[in-house]
Specification:
10 helices, elongated
């Protein structure tokens, strides 16, 4: 990789890292401190326990964005250069990542509300959009931006990513459909799916 290509690749990766960091930081702001009235009526322990939807939403969103960031870093370790279509694909991914704090706050606030289904639809739909965009980003990168003289290890890693991402959009689409039936279960499965991608996202290190 030429010095110019390294500079441009590092620039877009650094910009993306900042967007990921801001989105992850904004998530915790949505966990509200219990009001004095609620604490006086139920006690601080019970008031904090009642925030469990906020904790679950925060944990799910934070961990999912973390996994996305790790895989994003993994992809940038395999590509040799960038071009304009890739920049726009990456920008679309960052658009959805930056949006995550809003549906997270919504599902945390309305998970026990009669309209919880709408919040769950938007929440799971956002992760479905991220999954589709990430799959599009990798498909483009794997066809046009990978190094032509990659090592066997990097070729194996590229194949590993392709195999894993094949199922991501389908699984997130299934969870999106489930959100019309069970809000809590769809949220829990989003966390489980992020965990599965984390466990399956270790790069191969063969000799």
């Amino acid at each position: 990789m030429h010095m110019h290509e390294e500079k441009e690749t590092g620039r877009i990766e650094g910009f993306s890292d900042h967007v990921f960091a801001i989105a992850m930081t904004l998530l915790v702001i949505e966990i509200k401190i219990p009001s004095h009235e609620l604490v006086a009526a139920k006690g601080l322990t019970q008031a904090l326990a009642a925030l469990w939807p906020s904790y679950l939403a925060f944990l799910t969103s934070f961990f999912t964005i973390l996994v996305i960031w790790v895989h994003h870093h993994w992809i940038f370790g395999l590509i040799r250069r960038i071009d304009h279509p890739f920049l726009y694909c990456n920008g679309l991914l960052l658009l959805f990542v930056a949006f995550v704090p809003f549906p997270t706050a919504l599902i945390a606030e309305y998970s026990l509300h009669p309209d919880a289904r709408v919040a769950a639809n938007l929440y799971t739909g956002t992760f479905l959009a991220i999954s589709l965009t990430f799959d599009m980003l990798w498909r483009y990168a794997s066809k046009r931006l990978l190094s032509t003289n990659s090592t066997r290890v990097k070729n194996d890693e590229a194949a590993q990513i392709t195999k894993q991402y094949r199922f991501g959009p389908l699984l997130y689409f299934a969870i999106f459909g489930l959100s019309f039936v069970s809000e809590t279960l769809s949220l829990a499965l989003c966390l489980l799916l992020a965990l599965l991608f984390a466990l399956g996202g270790w790069p191969i290190r063969r000799q």
